[in-house]
Amino acid sequence: MVNIPEYYAGKNVVISGATGFMGKVLLEKLLRSCPGVKAVYVMVRSKAGQSPQARIADMINCKLFERLQAEQPDFAEKIIAVNSDLTLLELDLSKEDQSILVENINIVFHCAATIRFNEPLKDAMQLNVLATQKMLALAHRMKHLEVFIHVSTAYAHCDREVIEEVVYPPPVNYRKLIDTLDWMDDDLVATLTPKLIGERPNTYTYTKALAEYLVLQEAGDLNIAIVRPSIVGASWKEPFPGWIDNFNGPSGIFIAAGKGILRTMRASNDAVADLVPVDVVINATLAAAWFSGSQRVNSLMVYNCTTGGINPFHWGEVENCINMTFKNNPLEQAFRRPNVNLRSNPFTNQYWTTVSHTLPALLFDGYLTLMGHKPRMMKTITRLHKAMVVLEYFTSHSWVWNTDNVAMLLSHMSPEDKKVFNFDVRQLHWAEYMENYCMGMKKYVLNEELSGLPAARKHLNKLRNIRYTFNTVLVVLIWRIFIARSQMARNIWYFVVSLCFKFLSYFRASSTMR
User: Fold this and answer.
1) Higher pLDDT, 164 or 493
2) Buried b (16+ CB within 10 A) or exposed e, 309-342
3) Architecture label for domain 4-239+274-311
4) Are the CB atoms for 235 and 420 separated by under 8 Å?
5) Average pLDDT, the chain
6) Angle, in degrees to the nearest 10, between helices 377-395 and 250-258
7) Which residues, 6 or more positions from 250, have their beta carbon under 8 angstroms from its beta carbon?
8) What is the pLDDT of residue 192?
9) Can you say whether the dihedral through the CA atoms of 221, 406, 151, 13 is positive or negative?
10) What does the pLDDT look like over 228-276, one tens digit per residue?
């Protein structure tokens, strides 16, 4: 077998979803590690008055592409923006662009999807199912297509405890569902959605399962592989550790914890946090296309790109890493000191949510109102709670994923390819990765310079002193108002105070003698 860069040499590749988190990492890695690739067509729609070409130009000027820019200054010449909208008829491709893709494309990476968990079912079907159907229809017309890669999710079949590397039949016929949703109004669809998705937690996982089955049914003679990543996080190594550019998934929760806004969350400490670095997913995706494309595999290959069964990491460990990292390297202008706690009991979590989130937010908004400013904290807390409700299902359950195909793929790679396209998560050191993840959010999402750390630490110490002062005053008030009304309580009070003074006097005397 040729190695991976040799396989991509001279090939024309098309990527849908190239402006998304995974899509842009795929684009960067493909161009950097497979310099012989002929051209990469990226399907992009116009947005906010920007043309596809302008959007791509803006995208490749970000931090992610700096290493590629240094190694291959002319890399942008290989990127060809194609005006396309996956929700429209024939992907909204012009006849000319259709002809170019049909005549030239060798490899398709279909990464486009909505990642909003609570997307209305009609919209989720449009973006995750119908768009996939249109991409397959286009792929069937491509004269030189070697492989079609569909990026799914490991949670597509989260209603199962054990998930094999196979495509499972969905609970409904996707063709009938598409026809039915076509005539239903939005209110009726919203009413029927809980019944339709059944035991799945949201429309995202439901429609991704339907899309997988659609790929299986409509593959025909296409050479197809499905890659299923779990919770995609910041980069592990490439193009540099900790790169991330969004608040999606757990990232927004981590930042809220670092800011001291998030103090309690419903989760099981013992549940496996199946995080997977984005560069691991992309390396596995490029390798999967190489294997299927060069081997001409007869069956549809599925790859569970997960970490839990190979190198497990638990939510309780995530909590410890976040608290430790953000206490040592605090975020600027934190609301409180980082101290998030995971609670599996819903009633306990609700109590601490009220005490640690709602009441402080109301008090802070009251202060802002008195000072003539617009209240904002309660709005932030409400948004945070909605995000946590969406994630609760995934932070409270564990799954067993079979990863035999991933292991097989790794075994077929040359030693050099294993280094350049590394997705062996057995080598992943979680504490180091989480520290880089947190620091990446500080640098690349919040744009906070490391030079600001001394001031941030000083601010954190100030918050700690305010907290200790507040707790002391609160204890004194409770004693004086509710307890010290009886003679016995007063005696206990004076005894405790005198004991404290004696200890202070003892330590002061000891330090003077030294």
Assistant:
1) 164
2) beeebbbebbbbbbbebbeebbbbebbbbbbbbb
3) 3-Layer(aba) Sandwich (3.40)
4) no
5) 89
6) 130
7) 231, 233, 275, 318, 391
8) 87
9) negative
10) 999 999 999 999 999 998 888 888 899 999 999 999 999 999 999 999 9
The answer on pLDDT for 470 being more than 90 is: no
pLDDT of residue 483: 61
Residue by residue, DSSP assigns 180-221 as HHHHS-HHHHHHHHHHHHTTSSSHHHHHHHHHHHHHHHH-TT
Backbone torsions φ then ψ of 414, nearest 5 degrees = -75, 160
Task: Round to whole Å and give the CA distance between 31 and 297.
Answer: 25
Residue type, 382: T
Rounded Cα–Cα distance for residues 172 and 188 (Å): 18
The SS3 call for residue 39 is strand
pLDDT band at 512 (very low <50, low <70, confident <90, very high): low
Alpha-carbon span 253 to 249, nearest angstrom = 8
The number of residues in the chain equals: 514
Domain-wise residue ranges, the chain: 4-239+274-311, 240-273+312-447, 452-513
Helix (H, G, I), strand (E, B) or coil at 462: helix
Q: What is the amino acid identity at position 13? A: V
CB 20 within 8 A of CB 112: yes
- Token pair in block for residue 7: 């396989």
Query: Does position 513 have pLDDT exceeding 60, yes or no?
Result: no
Please tell me the pTM assigned to this model: 0.89
Concatenate the DSSP letters of all residues of 382-442 into one string. Answer: HHHHHHHHHHHHHHS---EE--HHHHHHHHTS-HHHHHHT---GGG--HHHHHHHHHHHII
pLDDT confidence bin for 36, thresholds 50/70/90: very high
Which are the contacts of 201, defined by CB distance < 8 A and separation ≥ 6?
117, 158, 393, 394
DSSP state letter for 327: H
Task: Write down the pLDDT at residue 511.
Answer: 54
- Long-range Cβ pairs for the range 454-462 (8 Å, 24+): 455/332, 456/329, 456/330, 456/331, 456/332, 456/333, 456/334, 457/330, 459/330, 459/332, 459/333, 459/334, 460/327, 460/330, 460/334, 460/337
- Of 107-121, 267-281, 470-484, the range with the highest mean pLDDT is 267-281
* Paired tokens of 289: 């296309």
Tokens coding 484: 């010290």
3-state helix, strand, coil in the chain (%, to 5): 55, 10, 30
Please compute the mean of the pLDDT values over residues 392-417 and round it to a whole number. Answer: 93
Q: Is-contact 43 14, C-beta < 8 A?
A: yes
